[in-house]
Amino acid sequence: MGTAFVLSLALSAVVGFALGVFGGGGSILAVPILVYVTGIAPSAAVGMSLAIVGATSLTASYAHHRKGRVRPRVALLFGGSGIATAFLAARLTHRVSGAVLMISFATLMLVVGIAMFASARSVNDERDEVPRRHPNLIPAFLAGAGVGAITGFLGVGGGFLVVPALIAFTGLGMRDAIGTSLLVIAINSAAGFLGHLHADELNLGLVVPFTLAAVIGGAIGERVARSLSLARLRSGFALFVILVGIAVAALAITGTHPSREPRSSLVPRGYVGPSAGHPTAGTP
Q: Could you state, in order of their start, the residue ranges of all structural domains in the chain?
């Protein structure tokens, strides 16, 4: 068992932990981990990220559901509107180079990190609800479709967009929005993952252990969220996301790329790399 594999497992648990605490944001670390730590090609990392994030979010959403913090009808409306866009956007991932994909991802990380840091001051751990109002269906549907496209193309759950959209357009309270967003992420991730299956470059042998680590991290995060200050956690995590985004941008711009195949120490026995008919994104 190589050092990179162990480190990837630990970082997958961090991704799950962030999902369990914030209901979003943690998934944005999954692709950089798979690319720069595990050594997976960017386009394959997007598909693998969707499997890991989707399974973790579904598991975490069940814990929130038991506490009455998931609104299934709202999740089906918001997530259902993103199914088609997630699937179609996933098909586009393999049509762009790895460098363009990672620069786009780094840009998203910087935007999300800054937004999370700016909003952390307004997070009130005691305020669980906002005034109820009738859902604004058309904006909710359009927002869900947009989040689905981002999920499919870049392999992120989009919880950082789903939570504020649910609050703005459906009138959910903060904690209900976090729980419901996890189910939305699971729906969009499943659609995006199906869109990536045609590529024949997904290493499912690595998806399983990384997903288990993320699920365990998510369970811990959900428990930790009950007792710690969400504002302080959110600020620290936002700064971390910004730093990682800067690093990813620098690596992508300077042309520093990992190997196009998973590192040999991480490849399960019997794994065959991408077929000749489906070259890795960015391969000449």
A: 3-257
CB-count exposure of residue 245 (10 Å: 0-12, 13-18, 19+) = buried
Residue with tokens 């499919």: 152
Residue 24 to residue 184: CA distance in whole angstroms: 10
Contact of 47 with 199, CB cutoff 8 Å: yes
Q: Which two tokens stand for residue 251?
A: 């690596």
Distance CA 198, CA 152 (A): 14
Q: Contact at 8 Å (CB) between 64 and 184?
A: no
For 159-192, the pLDDT digits (tens) are 778 888 888 888 888 778 888 988 999 999 999 9
The residue length of the chain stands at 284
pTM: 0.77
